[in-house]
Amino acid sequence: MSNGILTLVYDIPAMDMISAGEASSNVKKKLKQLGVNPLIVKKVSISMYEAEMNAVIHANGGSATVNIGTDEIVIIIEDRGPGIENIDLAMKEGYSTASDEVRQMGFGAGMGLPNIKKNSDSLNIESEIGKGTRLEIAIKFTS
Amino acid sequence: MTTYYHSVTLDDSKCKGCTNCIKKCPTEAIRVRKGKARITNERCIDCGECIRVCPYHAKKAITDKMEALGGYQYKIALPAPTLYGQFPSRYDRKAILGALKAQGFDEVFEVARGAEIVTEAVKKILMKRDCPKPLISSACPAVVRFIQVRFPALIDNLVKIDSPMEVSAMLARKRAAEQTGIRKDDIGVFFISPCAAKATSVKTSYERYSSNVNGVLSMADIYLGIVRDMESKKYDKVLIQAGIEGLRWAGSGGESLSLQAESYLSVDGIHNVAKILEDIENEKLGDIEFVEALSCTGGCLGGPLTVENGFVAAARLRKHLEQSRYMERAEKRMDYSEVDLVWQKKIEHKPVLKLDENLQEALRKMGELESINDKLPGLDCGACGAPSCRALAEDIVRGKSHETDCIFKLREKVRDLAIQMMELEGKMPPVMDDSSNGEEDLKK
Ligand SMILES: Nc1ncnc2c1ncn2[C@@H]1O[C@H](COP(=O)(O)OP(=O)(O)OP(=O)(O)O)[C@@H](O)[C@H]1O
Ligand code: SF4
Ligand code: SF4
Ligand SMILES: [Mg+2]
C-alpha cells in the first residue's frame, strides 16, 4: 500500500440498533472530506455498512480497522462471534440464518455478503467456528 | 476564485457575535470572528436556518426592492402559493390576487400553475423504466445545493426539470408578449418569494444560463400593501389559474400528493433532510419511488421570508385548497406538454468540504485533524467561534485558526507559562538574589 496511510479504529457494539452503522457512516464522512470520488465513497459505505451490520447482528459486535492510503482503502471487520460454517454458502444471494426477530428489523435478506463482493475489489473472509470471523475488504480509488 | 453570490447575509451592526447561529448551519458555513458572524459563501446553501435562529435579526436575505419594478414597461407578479396562507381566512384567492396586482403590476401569474405543469412532467419521468430510485424532488433549491455540497452521489437522483417559478416566468412573459405586443425585454417578471434560496437561484442559477425571473420580492415586504388594499377595496376580477395540484406544493407533502406516486416519502426541515439523504446514499430507501425534501419546517409555508407562522399558514392554505375545487378559473386548461422543461446546465458537485486538492496532503491533514481533535476538550462550547471542537480542529489544519482560539487550551498555555515564569524567577542570578544564604553568612 502507498504511503500517507491513515488508520481509523472503531468499536462495533453488539445488538445496539441505535448506534449500529455509525462506524461506516463516520468513514463515509471522512472520505468525502478527503475528496474521494463520490462513486467510490458509495461503494465503501455500502460494503462497510453490510460488514458492520453482520458483526452487530450475527456476532455480538466486534471492531473495525480502516486503513486509508492514496490509492486504496482496506477495511478489516473482526468479531469473536460464532463463526461462519460454510463461507461459500454464506456468499450465496438469499442465504441467511437470521432469526425472525432480526428479519422483523429489515435484515436477513441474505444480500449483505454478496453486496460486499459486488462493491469491492477484493474480499477475504477468514472464519473459525466458535472463535470468530475476520473480513478484509479492499476498494481501489482509481477507476 | 470569483465570489459566489447568494442571498443570505449578515447585518454587521446588529450581530452581537453570540454564536447562536453557528451550530444551526447544516454545512458549518458560519464562524464568529472578532465578535461578528462570518458566512463562508461557497458553503452556504441559503436554507435560512440562521435567519430563523438569530435573536437580534442580524441575518437577512437580500431581495429586490419594489423600486425594481420601475425599469420595465409591463410588470408581472408571480406569487408563490405560500402567499395564500399569509392572510386571515376571510380573504379568498380572488381578493389576494387582485390586491397583489394592485401593488404596481399589470398582471399576475400563479406559480401554482407552473407547479401543475411541472407535476405532469415529473409524472412522465417516474414512468420511465430507467428512472433512478428514489427520484428526489428539486423543488427546494436549498436541498439541491445541500446535495451538491454534501451528497454528490445523489445528484443523479434529482429531478432535472425547471422549477415552477422558472416555468411560470417563462410562460407569463411569452403570453404577455403575445397579447400586448410589448418586447420581451421590456416585460419585468417578479417572483413573490417566501424563500431566500430562490432569490439566489435567480441571481446565480445552477440549472440555467440565466433565470427567466427579473427580480425577487420578499413576501414579507409586499404583505402590508396587500392587506391594506384588501381591507379597503373589492377585487372581483377572476385571476385564478391554478387548482389544488399546484396550490398544495406550498406545504410539505403537497408535491407528492399531486404526483400520485405509488410510494413516496416527504421530509421537511434541513436537519431531517440530512438524515434521509444519508439513508438514500446508503441505499436503504430503494423501495421508495419519490422523495420530496424541503429545507424549511412545514415546507415553503415555513419559509424564512413569510410573515405568518408556518403552522397557522398551513391551516389557512387548507381552506384555499378546499375552495379551489369549485373556484372559477380565468384560464381554461391549456396543454403545455410541448414546453421544454429540461435543465440547461449539468449541475455539479461542489467539493467545498474537501481538506485538500491532493489526496496525500488531505490524508496528512486528516491525521493531524484527528490528533488535534483528540486534545480538544470536546465540549463544543462555541467560544472559539467554531460550531464544534471538531470544526475548530478542521479550521486549524486549514490554517484558519489556532489551537489557542480554544479558551481551555489558552488557559492551559497560560498556566504552563505561569509555571515557567515561577521557575525562572527562582533562578535569579546570584548577584541579584538577596535571599542567598551565602551573603548572609559573609555578613556575620
Ligand atoms: N460476522 C458473522 N458471524 C457469523 N455469521 C455470519 C457473519 N456474517 C455473515 N454470517 C452468516 O452468513 C449469512 C449471510 O450473510 P449476509 O450478510 O449475506 O446475509 P444476512 O446478514 O443474513 O442478511 P442481510 O445482510 O441481507 O440483512 C448470515 O445469515 C449468517 O449466517
Ligand atoms: S443560510 Fe443556511 S447554509 Fe447559509 S449560513 Fe445560514 S444556516 Fe448556513
Ligand atoms: S422549503 Fe421552500 S421556502 Fe424553504 S428553502 Fe426550500 S424552497 Fe425555499
Ligand atoms: Mg448481512
Can you give a write-up of this model?
The complex is a heterodimer of chains A (143) and B (444). Chain A is of the alpha+beta class and 143 residues long. Chain A has a single domain (4-83, 112-140), classed as Heat Shock Protein 90, CATH 3.30.565. Chain A has five helices and five strands, in the order E-H-H-E-E-H-H-H-E-E. Chain A has helices spanning 22-34, 38-58, 87-90, 100-104, 112-119; strands spanning 6-12, 62-68, 72-79, 122-128, 132-140. In chain A, strand 4 (122-128) and strand 5 (132-140) form a beta hairpin. In chain A, helix 1 packs antiparallel against helix 2 (38-58) and helix 2 (38-58) runs antiparallel to helix 5 (112-119). Chain A is globular. With 444 residues, chain B is α/β, with parallel strands linked by helices. Chain B has 15 helices and eleven strands. In chain B, the strands form four sheets. A four-stranded parallel β-sheet of chain B has the order 6-5-8-9, with helices on both faces. A three-stranded parallel β-sheet of chain B has the order 7-11-10, with helices on one face. The longest helix of chain B has 20 residues, at 407-426. Chain B starts with 7 loop residues before the first strand and ends with a helix. Classes of the chains: A alpha+beta (143), B alpha/beta (444). At the A-B interface, helix 1 and helix 2 of A face helix 12 of B. One iron/sulfur cluster is lined by residues 47, 140-142, 194-195, 197-198, 294-296, 299-300, 303 of chain B.
